[in-house]
């Protein structure tokens, strides 16, 4: 078995345990105050890793291949197993499991908090995954991953599930195999991403959202509570509903992220030209996109171009198109 209970790898003098972990540049960790309950379970101990201390609570597992960064805290009954790297200053709360004994790797950056009973970097649920194939998960820095969230590794060795930096992933979320989540997103509780979903940056979901596999969610968009997303959400847009529809620009999100009033006004003009045309039937959608791009005043605002690009990209090969337009409050 690749994994071993911490404290069982080797025993030093005075019932101190000496554990060899190859990670992080040093290869020896001295464990103090260890009370052995059995030869597989330690009750309580501290690790001192060079001068920086790592805290490991009772009933934790650290796999023999795991690498734990400086100043990490593993709370009671948390587990870091398999070929898993935990960066500096991470906190793994009780019941959380990081990594699995599978070929491939789980890499977690620095300053991440992994909530109670979260399950991060385990085998995916895709039936195409073949036992024995390598699979990967990479998580960046400064993420807050809350209780009961699960994040799966890729479904094949040529792909990787990726989470960027600064995301708040609230309780009971699911991020499936091969998803790519960018930076500074807020996923409210029970946001469920199917396989291969792409989330760009600074998006916000309300609670209880499901996103169909292969959908893309553009930066600065907002997804209303209880939505079912089965097509792409363009950048800066707000959608909601079962088979979510476009409801307007994400005005509140844009303001919060520091877009100026002038920028937002211009984006509104572009939005109206694209989605709210009286002559909608006489012009193709593509014509409307081109018209916005060719309009100097509109194209001057980079967010307008970025919105048009994001819509266009959704109609390229193998993409799913965008959510239908469903007028709500206007924008
Ligand atoms: C869901 O999220 C909200 C914050 O938006 C939080 O206050 C609430 O406690 C959460 N509920 C659960 C069950 O996690």
UniProtKB/TrEMBL annotation:
<keyword id="KW-0441">Lipid A biosynthesis</keyword>
<keyword id="KW-0808">Transferase</keyword>
<dbReference type="Pfam" id="PF00132">
    <property type="entry name" value="Hexapep"/>
</dbReference>
<keyword id="KW-0443">Lipid metabolism</keyword>
<keyword id="KW-1133">Transmembrane helix</keyword>
<keyword id="KW-0012">Acyltransferase</keyword>
<keyword id="KW-0444">Lipid biosynthesis</keyword>
<feature type="domain" description="UDP N-acetylglucosamine O-acyltransferase C-terminal">
    <location>
        <begin position="232"/>
        <end position="323"/>
    </location>
</feature>
<dbReference type="InterPro" id="IPR037157">
    <property type="entry name" value="Acetyltransf_C_sf"/>
</dbReference>
<dbReference type="InterPro" id="IPR029098">
    <property type="entry name" value="Acetyltransf_C"/>
</dbReference>
<feature type="transmembrane region" description="Helical">
    <location>
        <begin position="29"/>
        <end position="49"/>
    </location>
</feature>
<dbReference type="InterPro" id="IPR011004">
    <property type="entry name" value="Trimer_LpxA-like_sf"/>
</dbReference>
<keyword id="KW-0812">Transmembrane</keyword>
<dbReference type="Pfam" id="PF13720">
    <property type="entry name" value="Acetyltransf_11"/>
</dbReference>
<keyword id="KW-0472">Membrane</keyword>
<dbReference type="InterPro" id="IPR001451">
    <property type="entry name" value="Hexapep"/>
</dbReference>
<protein>
    <recommendedName>
        <fullName>UDP N-acetylglucosamine O-acyltransferase C-terminal domain-containing protein</fullName>
    </recommendedName>
</protein>
<dbReference type="InterPro" id="IPR010137">
    <property type="entry name" value="Lipid_A_LpxA"/>
</dbReference>
């Amino acid at each position: 078995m690749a994994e071993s209970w911490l404290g069982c790898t080797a025993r030093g003098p005075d019932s101190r345990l000496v554990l060899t972990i190859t990670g992080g540049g040093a290869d020896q960790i001295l464990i103090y105050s260890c009370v052995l309950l059995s030869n597989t379970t330690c009750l309580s101990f501290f690790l001192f890793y060079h001068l920086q201390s790592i805290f490991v609570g009772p009933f934790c597992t650290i796999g023999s291949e795991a690498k734990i960064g400086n100043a990490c805290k593993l709370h009671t009954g948390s587990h870091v197993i398999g070929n898993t790297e935990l960066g500096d200053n991470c906190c793994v709360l009780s019941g959380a499991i990081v990594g699995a004994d599978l070929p491939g790797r789980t890499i977690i950056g620095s300053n991440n908090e992994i909530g109670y009973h979260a399950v991060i970097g385990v085998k995916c649920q895709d039936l195409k995954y073949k036992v024995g194939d390598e699979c990967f998960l990479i998580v960046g820095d400064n993420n807050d991953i809350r209780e009961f969230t699960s994040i799966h590794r890729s479904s094949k060795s040529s792909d990787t599930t990726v989470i960027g930096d600064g995301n708040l992933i609230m309780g009971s979320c699911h991020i499936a195999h091969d998803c790519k989540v960018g930076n500074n997103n807020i996923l409210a509780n029970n946001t469920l991403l199917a396989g291969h979903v792409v989330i760009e940056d600074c998006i916000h979901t309300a609670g209880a959202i499901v996103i169909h596999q292969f959908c893309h969610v553009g930066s600065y968009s907002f997804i209303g509570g209880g939505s079912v997303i089965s097509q792409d959400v363009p950048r800066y847009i707000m959608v909601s509903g079962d088979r979510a529809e476009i409801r307007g620009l994400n005005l509140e999100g844009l303001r919060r992220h520091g877009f100026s009033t002038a920028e937002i006004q211009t984006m509104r003009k572009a939005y109206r030209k694209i989605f709210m045309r009286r002559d909608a039937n006489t012009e193709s959608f593509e014509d409307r996109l081109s018209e916005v791009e060719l309009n100097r005043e509109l194209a001057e605002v980079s967010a307008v171009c970025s919105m048009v690009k994001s819509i266009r990209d959704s109609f390229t090969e193998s993409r799913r198109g965008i959510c239908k337009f469903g007028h709500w409050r206007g924008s």
